[in-house]
Amino acid sequence: LIGATTENPSFEVNSALLSRCQVFVLKALGKDDLLQLLHHAITEDEVLQQKQIEFKETEAMLRLSGGDARKLLNLLELIIDAVTH
Asked: Residues 68-77: what's their mean pLDDT?
């Protein structure tokens, strides 16, 4: 069983189920980690490599991501789609 919640599992998950689970707390990624992720995405992804992407400003993207890598990559995709279409 794998699940995710933005709430405290101690209050939101049935105690019988919680006693049989292991809870992992995911922490927000830092600025350096997020910038490394962006760089990796544009240099390693075959589609993004062809687009010649250059970042002039990343602070808004990092702030909107809230330290979540998935949100950051979704933002990157939205921005690239908006600019190239």
From this structure: 95
| Angstrom distance (rounded) from CA 54 to CA 72 | 16
Tens digit of pLDDT for each residue in 16-57? 988 998 888 889 999 999 999 999 999 999 988 888 888 889
Long-range contacts of 14-17 (CB under 8 A, 24+ apart): none
Residues 81 and 85: their CA atoms lie apart, in Å, by: 6
What are the Cα distances from residue 21, in Å, to 13, 17, 27, 77? 10, 7, 19, 35
Given a contact cutoff of 8 angstroms between Cβ atoms, the answer to whether 62 and 34 are in contact is: yes
